[in-house]
Design goal:
Helices cover 24% and strands 34% of the residues. It is of the alpha+beta class and 236 residues long.
């Protein structure tokens, strides 16, 4: 018989905590035995984090494999080692020559299949060790490139040195690496300064609950927010 706590919970993650932190807080607050997530967000990223509770942890591969939608901001003229605002600044360049039309066309050319190499400051493992641990020791290790697909990479606002964008892509895409690569193509460099995940498959952030609101409730509040596993036909 299904447990009332088996299901999928949509969280609107705030900046700061890791995805693991969010899972741990939910597990401890509601005294749940089995809690996981359907794809990480970097600590400073916000937006949709899919939490899997009880038997719904079986949905992990399905949720992780879904296409994703992000909205974010990239800052031109500053290159960091992690390709985002949390990293060490490696170089600063003048972005004054950035042209809106040229940038729009460059972003359009990112659409389609492309090979992407994970950044050194990432959780991808090499010989069982996360890349970021190698990076902390100043080591650069060989990484295998991965095939990703970009459906859409569109400018939302142009306010140099900051450019807002919308990205729709397959799983496993590093948004910050795309921003870095685009910046290098523009000649002035860039890094990802803000990121928000708005969608994973058919799941949208508008249906998510904030951590504060969730943790102010009890177990009955949690169960009312759960999406039943029956909503995912492939695993019925």
């Amino acid at each position: 018989m299904p447990d009332p706590c088996d299901g999928v919970l949509l969280i609107d993650k705030p900046p700061g905590p890791t995805s693991h932190d969010v899972v741990d807080r939910i597990r401890r607050h509601f005294r749940l035995r089995k809690v996981g997530h359907g794809g990480t967000l970097d600590p400073q990223a916000t937006g949709l984090l899919v939490i899997l509770i009880g038997r719904a942890t079986r949905l992990s591969s399905l949720i992780m494999g879904a296409d994703k939608v992000y909205e974010g901001v990239m800052t031109f003229g500053v290159i960091t080692d992690s390709h985002d605002g949390d990293g060490t600044v490696l170089e600063e360049r003048d972005p004054a020559g950035l042209n809106r039309d040229t940038l729009v066309e460059a972003m359009r050319r990112f659409q389609g299949d492309r090979m992407q190499t994970p950044p050194m400051v990432s959780a991808v493992k090499k010989d069982g060790v996360p890349l970021y641990k190698h990076a902390r020791k100043g080591r650069e290790v060989e990484r295998a490139a991965r095939l990703i697909h970009v459906y859409e990479f569109r400018m939302l606002d142009f306010a140099p040195p900051c450019v807002a964008f919308r990205l729709r892509c397959t799983k496993g895409a590093y948004v910050r690496s795309l921003c870095h690569e685009l910046g290098m193509q523009m000649g002035c460099g860039a890094h990802l300064s803000q990121l928000r995940r708005t969608q994973s498959g058919d799941l949208i952030v508008e249906n998510a609950v904030t951590m504060d609101r969730l943790l102010n409730g009890d177990l009955s509040d949690l169960t009312r927010r759960l999406i039943s596993m029956s909503a995912f036909p492939s695993l019925r």
